[in-house]
Amino acid sequence: GLGRGAGGCLPGDSYATSFAHQLLTLSSRTGLNVVRNPSLGLAHLVVSVLVAVLIGAVYFHVNDAWSGLQNRAGCIFFIISLLAFGSLSSLEMFITERALFLHERANGCYRTSAYFLAKVLCDLVPLRVVPPLIIGGITYVMIGLKPGVFPVFWFQVVLVLVNITSAGICMCVGALAPNVGVANLLTVLVMLFFMLFGGFLVNNDSVSTLFAWFKALSFFNYAFEALMVSQLDGHMTKLSIDSKTDVPISGSMALKTLSLVPQHFSRDVAVLATMSLVYIALAYVLIRVRYAAERRGGFLALLRRSPPSQPSQPSAFAEFTGFGGESTQVSGRKRARDEPELESEEPFAKRSRVSTNMAATIAP
User: Fold this and answer.
1) How far apart, in whole angstroms, are the C-alpha atoms of residue 50 and residue 183?
2) CB 253: neighbour CB atoms within 10 A?
3) Strand partners, 48
4) 334-354 exposure pattern, b = at least 16 Cβ within 10 A, e = fewer
5) In DSSP terms, which residues pair with 5 in a beta bridge?
6) Tens-place pLDDT, residues 17-42
7) pLDDT per residue over 228-253, tens digit each?
8) DSSP characters for 195-231?
């Protein structure tokens, strides 16, 4: 079994199975849901290809003139924005299955860490790593960005970090938001402010000290500077004074004009990597906080108790793994006798229907 007892899922801090076993089983269940509902993954892949071709057609083979520099900056910032807002699909990760998670976690089916890691792994690789690699590969060739192995490599790395960081922000909001609508509103506002202070719409040197902390927290800022430095450092461009006069301008001078510092490249990549890890870790902490808050509010006691007219049913997770049975039901009836009578059965009935509907959607 995956819970404490031989009968299946039972509440408690100790478990009959290891973390690895729980992670494998939860990952299998999540992967099965992805296979049964491939629309989201296919949408990400198809949109990535189509949008990449469209961006490449708009900025096809940029030149080395000042207009080409402007186009480079524009396409880079647009790709960053595209990946950031494309990560909004991560919002539903913990919202749609919240009732099911609270029910199964309350009955000790698995650790919170195993559930969180399984969800993140099944979302991270297919939706947060593959799409930016597709977009980066197609646009890099079509736009004609800086040739060389290292510029291409760092371009792809930064795009992946941008996608993971923005997905981490969405996970944090989704862990606390009451529904998808509120989560969407909050996340869009956060992304818009981060985009505003990303180094392209507002010059970094012109940002007042009052809003300096926005710039420091904006992953747009670090990603834009890192990509612009990788493309322009050591590159020569030219400014056309008239039809017969061109003034050569070094890439470092162009970066200075945009208030971007070539020496900050390593720092920018390191900050992006740190942000991605911090936001994912924060999302895990918020999941645990939400679980603890629901437990203190008595929600878990309602989930554990069965209505007097209905027999106790094993959880969807126990059904999926083949564990759970009479011993779990007996334990549930014993807990129901030990717990004080509640004023109304209506809250349980409402939440029980939510958990039952969620279980129906993921049961194999």
Assistant:
1) 27
2) 12
3) none
4) ebbeeeeeeeeeeebeebbee
5) 8
6) 889 999 999 999 888 887 887 887 88
7) 999 998 887 777 666 667 778 888 88
8) HHTSSSSS-GGG--GGGHHHHHH-HHHHHHHHHHHHH
